[in-house]
What does this fold into?
Amino acid sequence: MGIAFRTVPPAVPLAGGHRPLTGHGRRLNTDALAFMRELRGYGPMVRISIGPRPVYVVNSPDLIREVLATQARGFDKGAMFDTLRGPLGDGLTTSAADFHRRQRRLIQPGFHHERIERYTDIMSERSALRAAAWRADAVFDMVPEINRLTMDILLRTLFATDPGPELHAAVKEWLSVKYRSMRLALSPLQAWAERVPLLPRWRPPDGGPLDRLRAAQQRIIDAYRADGGDRGDLLSMLLLADGPDGAMTDGQVADELITLFLSGTGTISAAMAYAVHEISLRPDIQARLHEEVDTVLGERPPSFKDLRSLPYTRQILTETLRLHPVSWLSMRRTIQPLALGGAQLPTGTDVFFSPYALHRDAGLYEDPDRFAPERWSGSAAKPARGTYLPFGAGNRLCVGEEFAWAELTIALACFAGRWQWAPAPGQPVRTLVGTVIRPERVPVTLTARRTGRP
It folds into this structure.
């Protein structure tokens, strides 16, 4: 079921609530998720402004596909990614045009099935060890536990041997400062400063943590270059990748490592934490998850071959990423004049779309705010085109999507095999909105399951 959008609107309406000087900046910075949902009521496309900067927000799945696929070469990444390029470098997340396509071709082999199968052994081992360290009958905040797990898995898939405390400390410091970039991209003050040179701009995050992370990475890269072999890890793949335009430079490898630190920790951690939270609220869903895990795995840890045998686990995660898509807002900017939804957009026009608002649209999903894994069963397992975008689409589809699904599935199966959990009473879960959306805390009460596990 879908919304009957008009294909060619006679005019693109301006959203209500516009204020002098700030435009819609206040709503974007104080109530962003609700505001993006409200904008869908204006039809396939609506105009907002961030200070003096006009922005077209695309709501229709068909028009989103135009932006992401059909006319993708007419866009680059836009304001947020200009800001992110400072703390993140020029990796896949922020790079554009031909350079992005070249980097994607070089990186893709690192996420082929045979490599993913190797990585799942690490995912299973580390998830089982993390779950075994928890204690029953205790109120546990799952967020730091999951953060530690995803960092552990990422470092062990990036590097065949422990990279040492220097890199661990540098990554932790860098992650603590990167979340400010979305705030800069949505700031009316920043938008005005781009037009009025005398105004002070908001400053990007401190560059020191990125410099220290690059220095720690370079020492590891130097050691790998001296060795010259394939150690079976992601860094070896990056260093050995070659194409028509040659291999990556050390700087390009470092930028892609930084991209992997972002996607392999914050995004996967947030999705897993939300999955635990939603399962804790629904004993019926948790019981069915336990039944599937016990039937398929018994007492053994999950492996790559088990991924297809855990369909309900996958449905839970699919629904989690519908209700809580980590990338809640995406941006593009036109690099040439083009027509979109009946509007003529000049070069340099900012275009936004919100996977969060899309996924919670009552015209696309029945009872959209309800956590319902069963909506992904049987013939409904595949969503209608353009209506489900947790990993993007088109030439910006996340290259690590299969890696993420494998890690989420294996970790959740390990958790469910050993524990059942319930929400801690009187401790609500609050969503933080930044570069990604993530829960501030997920406090649960753990109870050991009587499955014979040690």
Confidence is low (pLDDT under 50) at residues 1-9.
